[in-house]
Amino acid sequence: MQVFRPGGSTTVPSHSSVSAAATDIKDALSGNSDLQRVIFVTHGFSGSINDGWLHQIKNEILRYNPEELVVLVGWKNGANPDESILRVYGKAAANTQVVGQFIASVATDVHNSYPSKRIYGVGHSLGTHVMGKAARASNAFDRITGASLF
Known about the structure:
It is a single chain. By secondary structure, this protein is of the alpha/beta class. It has one domain: Alpha/Beta hydrolase fold, catalytic domain (Rossmann fold, 3-Layer(aba) Sandwich). Strands 2-1-4-3-5-6 form a six-stranded mixed sheet, sandwiched between helices. Strand 1 and strand 2 form a beta hairpin. Helix 1 crosses helix 4. The longest helix has 29 residues. The chain is globular.
């Protein structure tokens, strides 16, 4: 996960725990009462956190809505397992459950600490399923948007 706020960013290592990821987001919120929303954005099948469009969306959100905190979620190892193409998509689809539950746990922790902050999820392709699963596993999300950018 990478957490971006207007004027800076901080990175949570991919192996971090739910509490470490949530703490990083809550730390970003604690010093800035102007931040109104936390937006989780993730890629889909065969993508990664380094995909250029993820950073374009993050930059545009922060440019037009400086009161928002953007959290980019990368799950490359789950989205692109190292196997034959015939089995890859099925495994990636199954991995959306695990990633969705992780995001749900982080979002719930953040929401419990900052109930007035709105939490959105944006996903592309299987990333939309990730966000849907996160929203169903948590009462923290106010909105989910699915995107097909290609």
